Amino acid sequence: MESRIERIKKQLHGASYKLTPQREATVLVLLENEEDHLSAEDVFLLVKEKAPEIGLATVYRTLELLTELKIVDKINFGDGVSRYDLRQEGASRFHHHLICIECGKVAEIQEDLLGDVEKIVESRYGFTVKDHWLTFHGVCQSCKSSGNESKK
Ligand SMILES: [Zn+2]
Ligand SMILES: [Zn+2]
Question: Around 55, how many Cα atoms within 13 Å sit in the side-chain half-sphere?
């Protein structure tokens, strides 16, 4: 984790930003909760534990900056809440999500399954793809095995 924060620090420096203690606390929270999809308020509450003097506006600005630098992606799963999701290092595309319609769990697929789809889009529509977001809606394995699925 140490080296990852160092690399994020370099990314910030490369864009002429400093990794201030407030920014560092925000990045650490994102790294520690990498599996989660935290809203700005969620991040703020966790950052406050490390840096009690920090304000929501500062956390919010940091998240916007990290989004701009493509260190995180801002996503919305249709509930109207913006969530912040760390992008895998060196990934040119955003990871895919599986959302369970029964329990609400969000899982991630880090492998990119859309390479061929992008080729079709490029050749058939003359469109150069830079990124994509893919969210699958369905029933997760644990809901299936606990039989929740049959109730609906
Ligand atoms: Zn994610
Ligand atoms: Zn489920």
Answer: 3
Counting the structural domains of the chain, the total is 2
Tell me how far the alpha carbon of residue 150 lies from the centroid of ligand 2, in angstroms.
12
Same domain, 16 and 55: yes
Q: Are residue 38 and residue 78 in the same domain, yes or no?
A: yes
Q: What is the pLDDT of residues 15-48, one digit of tens each?
A: 999 999 999 999 999 999 998 999 999 999 999 9
pLDDT digits (tens, 9 = 90+) for 98-125: 999 999 999 999 888 999 999 999 999 9
Spatial CA neighbour of 69 closest among 112, 145, 124, 17: 17
Q: Are residues 107 and 64 in the same domain?
A: no
Q: Is 140 annotated as a binding residue?
A: yes
**Do the annotations mark residue 37 as ligand-binding?**
no
Cα 75 to middle of ligand 2, angstroms: 20
Which residues have C-beta under 5 Å from ligand 2, the single-atom ion? 100, 102-103, 140, 143
